[in-house]
Design goal:
The chain is an alpha/beta fold and about 300 residues long. It has two domains: about 5-170, P-loop containing nucleotide triphosphate hydrolases (Rossmann fold); about 190-300, GMP Synthetase, Chain A, domain 3. Helix content is about 35%, strand content about 20%.
Length: about 300
Amino acid sequence: MSKTRAGFVALIGEPNAGKSTLLNRMVGAKISIVTHKVQTTRTRIRGVAIEGDSQIVFVDTPGLFRPRRRLDRAMVAAAWAGASDADVVVLMVEAHRGVTEGVEKIVEALGERAGNQVVALAINKIDRVRSEALLALTGQLNEMYPFERTFLISAEKGHGVEDLRRWLAGQMPQGPWLYPEDQIADLPMRMIAAEITREKLTLRLHQELPYQLTVETENWEERKDGSVRIDQVVYVARDGHKGIVLGHRGETIKAVGQAARAELEEFLGRRVHLFIQVKVRPGWLEERERYSEMGLDFSDGNE
């Protein structure tokens, strides 16, 4: 009889290092939002991948960066908490950006925080640089920290991802699986639905709107015909932001709703009736409830 393995893997790195893209490829489903706007992952989203007899539970942490506001500080605290709870930590570094000041600080912090944890290095976006530059970067990073293994990958194209997943499977401690085989994420569907809508808003608005926006799923109603009704609220901090989110004659929010509904229908495999309201809530960045709904600790945002 084969012995099963199960454990946690934390993906850490700077914002936009490709953590969400790697998680989605490892799990084989889109559960963490992927945009070109940095710092879109706010919650510690877990994806579950099966490799042979091993179950790998991925913790997709917010990107590590220099925090300025309460929300930033709570996100950075969540990232390190996710890393400290994991069996294996994978530091992701963008090949074409190399050792930035941010990467240096993360490696330094790893030296202080990692303890006996297994830490691997994944150099991502390898298709953007020449092999000599990759070799030099690998050497430089391994001089800075004793990584257990180094993987050269392209999360977007899939290069090297299978090797990384197989290696991670072998690193998992022996024990029973933590989730049912058909469960890919422990994030409640209401939150996944909110994240999908937030992604569509981010893509549509680009740089127009700062991070002072959150989406909440207020109601989830299962209907007799097998469809689902989802009511969501987009909270913004200012009146001016409400106009931006709604768009001229409501065109922006309508397009966002259509895109979010289409993705939700594909994700859920059934018909979705999506209703979105936009509300101004000036102090939402300082409300404790908003943080717990995003899976963050309000108190971690204190100076």
